Description:
L-arginine/glycine Amidinotransferase, Chain A
Amino acid sequence: MKETTAPNFTPAAIGCRMPAEWERHEATWLAWPHNPNDWPDKLDTIRWVYGEMVRKIGAGEIVRLLVNNRVEEQHARGCLHRAGADLCRVEFIQHPTNRSWLRDSGPIFVRRDRGRSAETAIVHFHFNAWAKYDDWQKDRRVPETAARARGKRLFHAECDGKPFVLEGGGIDVNGRGTLLTTEECYLDPKVQVRNPGLGRKEINETLRRYLGVTNVFWLVAGPAGDDTHGHIDDICRFVNPRTVVLIKEANRRDANHLPLSKNWERIQDLRLEDGARPEVVALPMPSPLFFDGYRLPASYANFYIANAAVIVPTFNDPNDRVALGILGELFRDRPVVGIHAVDLVLGFGTLHCLTQQQPAA
């Protein structure tokens, strides 16, 4: 593994870019759930959800699953086997984690295409538990472990000589040069501040240098109950290079109606890397879900695009069918399937939050 910290030697400088999620994967990375604080009294139930996820994802690619130790690996093997997952498609990697939200703490891959071949590398964005929790030290080392395990070059993201913090759930790309994020997540000067002192200009430039994007667009805010303070993957997602889905709350009395309406106003200004307007498709919201008095960030936008399927969180809601139908029309090259996520969202995230793709090289 080669580690790169030289300020002028970045992924963009050598022709790397972050591929879109629908581009071919070599693997999907997951971390076996073990923190009971994320899913109070539901941890065993969540492991069965993982079984369903691994079955659907493993049909088209390798699943690289982080486990804390050998004992946990044996437990995970037993659960996945009973759930009908193909263990021949699962690679277990021992690395202790604080939590299982690998979209945010896991390896973010970039790729350099070279004719008929390509090479991939990992960008280390120095996870700090959303600038909210104190236990992140194990999670921060996941990209380093992934780079060693796969023999990948590791770039340490920096800005003004300091580690730059970013979570995978805070960005979405079309693979052609455009990146989406939110002001609530990365520009709020007081709440969950990832990079103190950095503004829009500095963040835009850092994203360009480390992800190879040319065009950064900022939406406003995320839904109520979002523990991450505005991650884009609960709000707006690319489904192809020129189309996004954007969640919409039709109920004017719902707490989500006003902030999501502001996103709809802002999206009118979105232009792609070539200056063209994208197509914007509305995705509904499920009815509000609560646990112990807290609003949960249930959103159909938290789907994951695997090689063999698009897996979509469902919530025992009439809009489940509507959301699956909309996404089914947009993804014609792979099936769109629902995975029950009422228990999963107790951890303030669902399918996309738990997964991280490794693009094919």
